[in-house]
Amino acid sequence: IPHVSTGDMLREARRKGTELGEKAAEYMEAGKLVPDKVVIGIVRERLQEDDAETGFILDGFPRTRPQAEALAEMGVELDAVVNIDVSDDEVVNRLGGRLSCPNCGAVYHRDANPPSVDDVCDKCGSEGLITREDDRPEAIRERLEEALQETEPRFGSFFLLRFMGLEVEYGDEVCAVSVPTSAEWFNPQGTSLHGGALTIAIDISMGHLCERFLSPCVTLDMDIKYLRPITGPVRCEATFLKKARTVVTVQSRVLDEDDRLCAFATGTWFRLPQGD
C-alpha cells in the first residue's frame, strides 16, 4: 500500500518544477501554508496512479475541511482516520531539526535521523546539508498559527458524520440531521432505531446548531421522550428555546418521512468562553 505524503509530494513537485510544484514553491519558500487548491490538485493526480487503485495511506491530507470535502468528491471511502495530537513545541522541535540535501532531496534530522557522516548526504554523497526556509522555528510557528485559524472546529465532526452516514442541513436557526436506516442503527431485535444511536444524532443536531448560529457549546444535560417506534429514516431538527449569556436551551424534534413526531429532546448547553 503506497504511503501518500503531501509534504513529500509537494517537495518532489517543486524539485521537478511542475506547474503545481512551482505554485507550491512560492508559499513553501516563504514559510506559508500551501493553498488548498494546490494541495488538492497534487493529491488528486497521485491517487490516479496505478499503485493507488487498491488502497493507500494518506499522510498530512486532508488537513482542512475543503480538503476533506474534495476527498469525498473524489469518491474516496476511508476505512480509518488517525489524528495525532502533538504540542506546538514538539512540532517545532521535529520540523526545526530537519536537514535536507539540496541535490537529491533526502531528508534527515539532527537528533532522530542524522546522516552517517556529518553534513554529507548518505544517498548521493553531496556535502552541505541545509535547513529549508520553511523549517525555521519562526516559520513553523507562523504556519501553526495559520493552520489553527483556517481549520474549522467542525473539521473533526466531518469525519464522524461521514462514518456514521449522517447528513446535516441548516435553515433559519435550524439544524437538521438525517439518520439512515442501516442495520447497525437498530436495536438487537431489529424492531426500532436504537435509543443510543438516536441520542447521538440528537446530540449532534443540537451541538451543530449552537456552533453554527451561536458559539461552541458542551452538553450539560438532555431529556428525551419517545412517542413511537422508529422503523425508517428520520431527521432530528434542532432549534433554540432560550439563549442566555452562558447557558442555552435547545430542542430537537425527531420526525419520520411522513413528518410524524417520533421523539423529542430538550437539552441544556453551556457556552464555551471565546478568546479575544
In short:
By secondary structure, this protein is an alpha+beta fold.
Q: Helical segment tally?
A: 8
Helix % is 25-40%
Strand order in the sheet with the most strands: 5-6-8-9-10-7
- Specify Rg, calculated over alpha carbons: 24 Å
In percent, how much strand structure appears in the residues? 15-25%
- Which regions contain 5 or more consecutive residues with pLDDT less than 50? none
Shape: elongated
The major pleated sheet works out as: 6 strands, antiparallel
Secondary-structure class: alpha+beta
- Intertermini distance: 45 Å
Order of helices and strands: EHHHEHHEEHHEEHEEEE
Kindly state the number of beta strands: 10
The average pLDDT is 85
Tell me the layout of helices and strands:
Layout: E1 3-5, H1 6-16, H2 19-28, H3 36-47, E2 57-59, H4 65-73, H5 88-96, E3 98-100, E4 107-109, H6 137-150, H7 155-164, E5 167-170, E6 174-179, H8 195-213, E7 217-226, E8 234-243, E9 247-256, E10 261-271
Parallel strand pairs: 1-2
Antiparallel strand pairs: 3-4, 5-6, 6-8, 7-10, 8-9, 9-10
Helix pairs in contact: 1-2, 2-3, 3-4, 5-6
